[in-house]
């Protein structure tokens, strides 16, 4: 008798768990983003600029008083020019992510290099 009760409790627990899983209760945000498809055609204004604008322009945008590292990412000319504070390096080198400081900074596992900086509490995972 006691065993049956225990089994019933375990089964109802499992049912609740399955139900929660099906409802996506435990889904991580990253999983949602990982599942998003990369569009066939990446459009700068539609796909890229909103990210730069939301996550980078506070410090690398049009407001010169707030600009950091003397780096602007809001104009093509500035985004592609040699870094003012890092001669010989570039934020963006077309088709060469390994030479693009911008790319290196957003994938860095070193918190001291990672952009946006941790204290800005801006994340590139969609949150
Ligand atoms: C809260 C302010 C802040 C935000 C937001 C921010 N940055 Fe930065 N960024 C800095 C500071 C400060 C530096 C200079 C210190 C350093 O090199 O880490 C810097 C440096 C950089 C550099 C290197 C510049 C050089 O001359 O070497 C790159 C590239 C960069 N940021 C890209 C980005 C990108 C891309 C984003 C958005 C995804 C971003 N940053 C968001 C503050 C910010």
What's the arrangement of secondary structure elements?
Elements: H1 2-23, H2 29-35, H3 44-55, H4 57-60, H5 76-80, H6 101-107
This protein binds heme C.
Heme C (HEC) is lined by residues 55-56, 58-60, 68-69, 71, 83, 85-86, 91, 101-102, 105-106, 115-117, 120, 122.
Characteristics:
127 residues; mainly alpha; 2 domains; 6 helices; binds heme C
Helix content: 40-55%
In total, how many beta strands? 0
- Shape call: elongated
Count of alpha and pi helical runs? 6
Structurally, the number of domains stands at 2
Average residue-wise pLDDT: 88
The separation of the N and C termini measures 50 Å
Strand content: under 5%
- The rounded Rg comes to 23 Å
In short:
The chain has 127 residues and is mainly alpha-helical. Helices cover 45% and strands 0% of the residues. It is elongated and about 80 Å long.
Structure report:
By secondary structure, this protein is an all-alpha fold. It has two domains: 1-27; 37-120, no CATH class. Helix content is 45%, strand content 0%. The protein is built from six helices and no strands. The mean pLDDT is 88. The structure holds heme C.
């Amino acid at each position: 008798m006691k065993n049956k009760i225990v089994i019933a409790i375990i089964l109802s627990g499992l049912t609740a768990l399955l139900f929660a899983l099906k409802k996506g209760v435990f889904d991580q945000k990253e999983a949602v983003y990982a599942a998003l498809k990369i569009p066939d055609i990446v459009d700068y204004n539609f796909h890229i600029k909103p990210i730069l604008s939301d996550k980078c322009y506070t410090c690398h945008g049009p407001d010169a008083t707030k600009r950091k590292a003397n780096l602007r990412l809001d104009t093509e000319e500035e985004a592609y020019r040699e870094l003012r504070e890092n001669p010989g390096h570039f934020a963006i080198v077309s088709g060469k992510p390994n030479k693009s400081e911008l790319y290196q900074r957003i994938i860095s596992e070193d918190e001291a290099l990672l952009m946006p900086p941790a204290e800005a509490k801006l994340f590139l995972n969609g949150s």
